Amino acid sequence: MNANSKKPRLDRVRRQALQLLGTTAFSWSLAGQYARAETPAAVAGPEQLRIGYQKSAVNLVILKQQGVLEKRFAGTKVSWLEFPAGPQLLEALAAGSLDFGLTGDSPPVFAQAAGRDLLYVGAEPPKPESSAILVPSDSPLRTLADLKGRRVALQKGSSAHYLLVRALDKAGLAWNEIQPVYLAPADARAAFERKSVDAWAIWDPFYAATELAIRPRVLANGEGLSGNASFYLAARGLVERHPQVLRALFDELTRADRLAQSARQEAVALVAGFSGLDAAVVSRFIARRPSSPVGLLAAQTVVDQQRVADAFFRLGLIPRQVQVADIVWRPSAAEYARLAEPAAARPSSAL
């Protein structure tokens, strides 16, 4: 598709975003909301920083659109690469094509089991309402137990994969009692609309887009099944040589999240204008996204993630048992605090 053919669609999205903002429009712009009394100190970074993201990565999208990181990291070329799902993103990270990225809970487990060299470095809080198992509105399926023998579409190794594992467990069904159909989100939606699958396990924004377009029924969401936590992962070289970059990233991501919470309409307009998604879709998925500050993995988060890994191993869905804690970046509190200091005040050994 050429640039001219994309223009009407982009114009439509921009109009929707402006309508959403109403008469205030951009009178108090997102850039203005992001302004701070003090400009944070520039951080010495690597020559390049390649960041992987998905359309649902609200905090990262805000930073990308505002050009915040390009200003924060002195002498660093920041590149942004979009992926349809976490497994593809982590393949690129493991292959050396990325330095940093955000995924759901399952992709890192599959990557670790496959021997990929990467590290958990940060996390956002769980978002259980942001993923669901959908069925057509006229489907005879009414309970999770009704999935027995049915064809269920999902992205293999995604957060929706774990949601489906937990849903079957709750229903007393074994994994081999359904027919998993492994499809990327776009292909899964097409199969779902054709009714060539009976159900679809999916996450936002694909979930929200399908809700608004074809009104499916929600058989279950993540409440009581899967926390649907989000994790930031990084290449080992970035962690070992530039930990101060990670601290600065987390600080900026958390500021972006505060903006998403306090200036919701502006955040919706920004994400819609960037992603090409309808503003109504963006509004739907951001509305069920809780406050998502970014920080190091807490001990309980590691425990919860180990449960994800153990579940996949018990079902034979990963080739070996893994210990999540083995690939978690855990600087001490003092070390982490020191990484926020200006370079001139930080001992050179900290770099």
TrEMBL record:
GO terms for cellular component: membrane. Residues 48-270 form the Solute-binding protein family 3/N-terminal domain. It comes from the Bacteria. One of its GO terms (molecular function) is ATPase-coupled transmembrane transporter activity. Keywords: Signal, Transport. Belongs to the bacterial solute-binding protein SsuA/TauA family. Part of a binding-protein-dependent transport system for aliphatic sulfonates. Putative binding protein. NCBIfam families: PRK11553.1, SsuA_fam. This is Putative aliphatic sulfonates-binding protein. The lineage of its organism: Bacteria, Pseudomonadati, Pseudomonadota, Betaproteobacteria, Burkholderiales.
